[in-house]
Amino acid sequence: MTASSRLQKCLMTSLGITGGAILLNYGFNHRRERKAFASWTSNYTPDIRWDFNWDRRDPASLVKPSKNGKPVDDNLYNEQLEKQKSKVVRNIILIRHGQYNLSGRSDKERILTELGRYQAKLTGMRLLELNFPYTRIIRSTMSRAKETAEIIGESLPKSIIVVDDSLLEEGSPIPPEPPVGHWKPEATYTFQDGPRIEAAFRKYFHRATPEQNEDSYDIIVCHGNVIRYFVCRALQFPADAWLRFSIIHGSLTWLSVYPSGRVTLRTYSDAGHMPPEALTTS
Amino acid sequence: MTASSRLQKCLMTSLGITGGAILLNYGFNHRRERKAFASWTSNYTPDIRWDFNWDRRDPASLVKPSKNGKPVDDNLYNEQLEKQKSKVVRNIILIRHGQYNLSGRSDKERILTELGRYQAKLTGMRLLELNFPYTRIIRSTMSRAKETAEIIGESLPKSIIVVDDSLLEEGSPIPPEPPVGHWKPEATYTFQDGPRIEAAFRKYFHRATPEQNEDSYDIIVCHGNVIRYFVCRALQFPADAWLRFSIIHGSLTWLSVYPSGRVTLRTYSDAGHMPPEALTTS
Question: Does this complex have an ipTM over 0.90?
Answer without folding.
Answer: no
